[in-house]
């Protein structure tokens, strides 16, 4: 994934404003989204367009890996960023002012219950989102390459 390409920020409204502040301040404004709830910026390559797409996501940690959840608020469809990383698992991540390349993978069934508990400890609404949909909401590990 080339870092010199233009990145398109997919979200709109307050999420786009959050991403812009995050990028403009090197994470000083936006890394801690709410008290005790931290966000990272994930850049994926569009599976159809080939363009780089950036979104902000709540994250947790599991050892050296960063964890994100493909909840989309309990929507019956997976979020576009998740479908993109299934097609191309090499992603760019920004955590605060640190930027790095990572490989994304969906947690296995064995890993998921433990990782789900980690993420609902950070954002309890994930349980509500899962209750709203028949879709198995994935937990994704972002591992540095």
Automatic annotation (TrEMBL):
Catalytic activity: oxidized coenzyme F420-(gamma-L-Glu)(n) + a quinol + H(+) = reduced coenzyme F420-(gamma-L-Glu)(n) + a quinone
GO molecular function per UniProt: coenzyme F420 binding; oxidoreductase activity
Pfam families, sorted: F420H2_quin_red (PF04075)
Record-level GO cellular component terms: plasma membrane
Transmembrane segments: none
Annotated family: Belongs to the F420H(2)-dependent quinone reductase family.
NCBIfam families: hi_GC_TIGR00026 (TIGR00026)
Protein name, entry field: Nitroreductase family deazaflavin-dependent oxidoreductase
């Amino acid at each position: 994934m080339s870092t010199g390409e233009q990145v398109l920020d997919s979200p709109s409204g307050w999420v786009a404003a959050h991403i812009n502040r995050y990028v403009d301040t090197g994470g000083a404004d936006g890394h801690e989204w709410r008290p005790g709830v931290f966000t990272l910026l994930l850049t994926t390559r569009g599976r159809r367009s080939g363009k780089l797409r950036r979104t902000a996501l709540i994250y947790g940690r599991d050892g050296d890996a960063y964890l994100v959840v493909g909840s989309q608020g309990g929507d019956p469809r997976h979020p576009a960023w998740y479908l993109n990383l299934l097609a191309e698992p090499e992603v760019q991540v920004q955590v605060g002012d640190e930027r790095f390349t990572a490989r994304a993978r969906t947690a296995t069934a064995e890993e998921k219950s433990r990782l789900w508990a980690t993420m609902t400890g950070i954002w309890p609404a994930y349980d509500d989102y899962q209750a709203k949909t028949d879709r198995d909401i994935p937990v994704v590990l972002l591992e540095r390459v």
